[in-house]
Design a protein that fits this description.
Number of helices: 8
Strand content: 15-25%
Helix content: 40-55%
Oligomer: single chain
Strand order of the largest sheet: 3-2-1-4-5-6
Structural class: alpha/beta
Order of helices and strands: HEHEHEHHEHEHEH
CATH superfamily: von Willebrand factor, type A domain
Radius of gyration: 21 Å
Number of strands: 6
Number of domains: 1
Largest sheet: 6 strands, mixed
Shape: globular
């Protein structure tokens, strides 16, 4: 290979990376769970969907998203839906064509999620803890230490299973309930958690739920970036 050919390759390689996005930083891997248990009214589920639309609208180049349901058997029924990713835009691409592609992906993903939530049959109990285990498996399939992993949970955060029942949780009983699950929690390192849907409860119950779940997320080595009634400004909490 002549020197002039080598020089041309050296010049063209950086351009190739810019066009394909190969050298771009990895985006965010977003996993969203919707509580579809019997305690979740249809209108609440649709409100979760409205908040989810804001999450999708805040996605940027390099991001990937997938959804799952929380029900009485979260671990046994987990099957991701509404999954799509937004690739990196090439430097020489048409901005309008790229935007049309991204809009198609957003709208297609939203339609799938809306259909699933509309057709979901409410289950009896609420198995939130298993969602954490499924998140561990989901995120472990990515590249360790690269990009950001984000777990969004739309739920009232009231676990109700044979292992753990938080329906009557109070601040003074948090430690007792936490002791029941401490040794069985998954590791969610490099994961930011946002929990939205905790409302309609007394101040003491809210305090107890937040204290309990922040202890759980900390034990999982995850960062609880948001815990509240409604998720606003998704980008603010995950950037």
């Amino acid at each position: 290979m002549g020197d002039h050919v080598r020089k041309r390759m050296i010049v063209l390689l950086p351009l190739l990376f810019c066009v394909t996005g190969v050298s771009a930083a990895h985006g965010r891997d977003i996993l969203v769970f919707f509580d579809s248990s019997g305690s979740t009214r249809r209108e609440v589920l649709m409100d979760y969907y409205k908040q989810y639309r804001e999450v999708v609208g805040a996605m940027r180049e390099g991001d990937t998203i997938a959804c799952g349901l929380i029900n009485a058997n979260t671990r046994g029924t987990f099957a991701p839906f509404g999954s799509f990713s937004i690739r990196q835009k090439g430097t020489l691409e048409s901005p309008s064509a790229y935007k049309e592609e991204v809009d198609r992906k957003r709208n297609g993903g939203l339609l799938v999620v809306k259909r699933v939530l509309s057709e979901t049959i409410p289950s009896g109990n609420t198995d939130i803890l298993s969602a954490l285990g499924q998140a561990q498996t989901h995120f472990s399939r990515g590249t360790p230490g690269v990009g950001k992993n984000i777990l969004v949970i739309f739920s009232d955060m009231v676990e109700e299973t044979a292992t753990l029942n938080l329906t009557k949780l109070l601040p003074k009983t948090v430690d007792n309930h936490y002791a029941k699950v401490k040794g069985m929690l998954p590791k969610l390192s490099n994961v930011k958690v946002l929990a939205a849907g905790v409302h309609g409860v007394s101040p003491k119950t809210y305090e107890a739920l937040e204290t309990f779940w922040r202890k759980v997320f900390a034990e999982c080595s995850a960062e609880c970036a948001f815990f509240g009634a409604r998720l606003y400004d998704f980008g603010k909490w995950v950037n």
